Amino acid sequence: MSLAQFTKQELVDMSLVDMAYAIIESNNKQTVAFTEIMDIIVAATGKSQSEVRAKIAQFYTDMNIDGRFLCMGDNRWGLRSWYPVEQAEEDTITQIKPKKAKKKKLKDEDDDYEDDDLDYDDLDEFEDDDLLDDEEEIFDEIDEDEDLLEDDEELIDEDEELIDEIDVVDDELVDDEEEEEDDLTLDEEDDDL
């Protein structure tokens, strides 16, 4: 089923997930990149790129949640019905192979040291120094945070002063307007007499 068989009105009423299903299904069991799906939807519906981009996060989430779709890596999507369960798991799970060369190298380095060569008392001193360095870094960060808080408080104080000045100017303007209205009212009364 492709989008070509739907009318323009049907496409407007259809959800993006259903359109994606029709696009992927018509692709002869070949995965489709998410960007290609978006381009086809834009072309078929006549919606602008900005309209579709506004819905892209929800659309991507819906595709992930919808049980009909299967992401095959590199943001390429297929249909779950194309793959047997065992094959789908093998295709989507990346096998991580340990690097044997590093293990061998580490093993060779471990053989170079004998237990008798190590002085464990020296190790305690290094750990204490490292802990002191970590504590100093933490205290430095706390001091920086306190400085930022003080800067923020100064800005807040300045803002409050500006607001107070604005209130004073507003009050003066209101008083001036009231005086003008009173003067106009008095002039009108004088004219009436």
Automatic annotation (TrEMBL):
NCBIfam families: RNAP_delt_lowGC. This is Probable DNA-directed RNA polymerase subunit delta. GO terms for cellular component: DNA-directed RNA polymerase complex. HAMAP family: RNApol_bact_RpoE (MF_00357). One of its GO terms (molecular function) is DNA-directed RNA polymerase activity. Gene3D superfamilies: RNA polymerase, subunit delta, N-terminal domain. RNAP is composed of a core of 2 alpha, a beta and a beta' subunits. The core is associated with a delta subunit and one of several sigma factors. The keyword Transcription applies. Participates in both the initiation and recycling phases of transcription. In the presence of the delta subunit, RNAP displays an increased specificity of transcription, a decreased affinity for nucleic acids, and an increased efficiency of RNA synthesis because of enhanced recycling. Keywords: DNA-directed RNA polymerase, Nucleotidyltransferase, Transcription, Transferase. GO terms for biological process: DNA-templated transcription; regulation of DNA-templated transcription. Belongs to the RpoE family. Signal peptide: none annotated. Residues 98-131, 156-193 are annotated as: Disordered. It holds the Pfam family HARE-HTH. The keyword Transferase applies. Residues 14-82 form the HTH HARE-type domain. PROSITE patterns: HTH_HARE. Residues 109-131 have a biased composition (Acidic residues). InterPro entries: Asxl_HARE-HTH (IPR007759), RNAP_delta_N_dom_sf (IPR038087), RpoE (IPR029757).
